[in-house]
């Protein structure tokens, strides 16, 4: 008689402790970057309609919120400014007393050890909502680089620990690295949004940051979601230009790209779990259709399993809380 032969995978799944012993991927509070939106004024706490639990905060409330985050063990925060005034060239982005510069100064004064990351882009600050200078309906690459470099230097002057350029102009890492070095900030790292797709998952963020383009879309600078080799080209040039971290954005529909970058580059890989990914989970959870905590932990674990070293997520505080339980 022929004997039935097969592997007994279930041997290692029998008890919770056994499963814990062979678990390959773990989440730590150090993995998470907490995004915040800061507005002018006092005592402002505006919930973003499409992002329940996410607020635009004035500086006073922002500090309270960050005290809680620090208490939960969160090590880093990325600051998005929502300015009162916008113009054609986004001048509030590089004003020494712009909303982000004020926020960075205050955060570093209050929490010197918290790693403060500055998002370096123009779309929240331009009247047309594009990430660069616009002329006759076109987004100009090289003239935009000067403004980005100025923005990065003003953020570093305010005390930013990391500069995170997100606008997808060609050469932004080179331009920012050069300007930072010239201004004496050779020690300030660049976290490049190297691989950023023109994604429909950014919708809720644009409500939060008031940064929707007033005409057209971002497809001439952000990447086509259908492309993989282009991600290698972007990551390669940013690495050569001096990036210290490579980001992939969004995360959930791009886990293959995260793995590709992890396998081929030797810089820390950051996954941006974007607004639309957050809002989908929130909406389903509010309807009682999914278990929010279980789904979020599964999603974030999958990003780490795919190769992310760090995850930028609106769930950062929730996860920090859950990891403590
Ligand atoms: C652009 C920027 C975007 C996001 C952050 N900064 C994308 C965009 O509007 O094109 C999206 C983040 C999110 O969806 O959470 N500088």
Automatic annotation (TrEMBL):
<dbReference type="InterPro" id="IPR001731">
    <property type="entry name" value="ALAD"/>
</dbReference>
<feature type="binding site">
    <location>
        <position position="206"/>
    </location>
    <ligand>
        <name>5-aminolevulinate 1</name>
    </ligand>
</feature>
<feature type="active site" description="Schiff-base intermediate with substrate">
    <location>
        <position position="249"/>
    </location>
</feature>
<feature type="binding site">
    <location>
        <position position="275"/>
    </location>
    <ligand>
        <name>5-aminolevulinate 2</name>
    </ligand>
</feature>
<feature type="binding site">
    <location>
        <position position="131"/>
    </location>
    <ligand>
        <name>Zn(2+)</name>
    </ligand>
</feature>
<feature type="binding site">
    <location>
        <position position="218"/>
    </location>
    <ligand>
        <name>5-aminolevulinate 1</name>
    </ligand>
</feature>
<feature type="active site" description="Schiff-base intermediate with substrate">
    <location>
        <position position="196"/>
    </location>
</feature>
<keyword id="KW-0862">Zinc</keyword>
<dbReference type="InterPro" id="IPR030656">
    <property type="entry name" value="ALAD_AS"/>
</dbReference>
<feature type="binding site">
    <location>
        <position position="234"/>
    </location>
    <ligand>
        <name>Mg(2+)</name>
    </ligand>
</feature>
<dbReference type="GO" id="GO:0008270">
    <property type="term" value="F:zinc ion binding"/>
</dbReference>
<feature type="binding site">
    <location>
        <position position="121"/>
    </location>
    <ligand>
        <name>Zn(2+)</name>
    </ligand>
</feature>
<comment type="similarity">
    <text>Belongs to the ALAD family.</text>
</comment>
<keyword id="KW-0456">Lyase</keyword>
<feature type="binding site">
    <location>
        <position position="314"/>
    </location>
    <ligand>
        <name>5-aminolevulinate 2</name>
    </ligand>
</feature>
<dbReference type="Pfam" id="PF00490">
    <property type="entry name" value="ALAD"/>
</dbReference>
<keyword id="KW-0460">Magnesium</keyword>
<comment type="function">
    <text>Catalyzes an early step in the biosynthesis of tetrapyrroles. Binds two molecules of 5-aminolevulinate per subunit, each at a distinct site, and catalyzes their condensation to form porphobilinogen.</text>
</comment>
<keyword id="KW-0627">Porphyrin biosynthesis</keyword>
<comment type="pathway">
    <text>Porphyrin-containing compound metabolism; protoporphyrin-IX biosynthesis; coproporphyrinogen-III from 5-aminolevulinate: step 1/4.</text>
</comment>
<dbReference type="InterPro" id="IPR013785">
    <property type="entry name" value="Aldolase_TIM"/>
</dbReference>
<dbReference type="GO" id="GO:0004655">
    <property type="term" value="F:porphobilinogen synthase activity"/>
</dbReference>
<dbReference type="GO" id="GO:0006782">
    <property type="term" value="P:protoporphyrinogen IX biosynthetic process"/>
</dbReference>
<keyword id="KW-0350">Heme biosynthesis</keyword>
<keyword id="KW-0479">Metal-binding</keyword>
<protein>
    <recommendedName>
        <fullName>Delta-aminolevulinic acid dehydratase</fullName>
        <ecNumber>4.2.1.24</ecNumber>
    </recommendedName>
</protein>
<feature type="binding site">
    <location>
        <position position="123"/>
    </location>
    <ligand>
        <name>Zn(2+)</name>
    </ligand>
</feature>
<dbReference type="GO" id="GO:0005829">
    <property type="term" value="C:cytosol"/>
</dbReference>
<comment type="subunit">
    <text>Homooctamer.</text>
</comment>
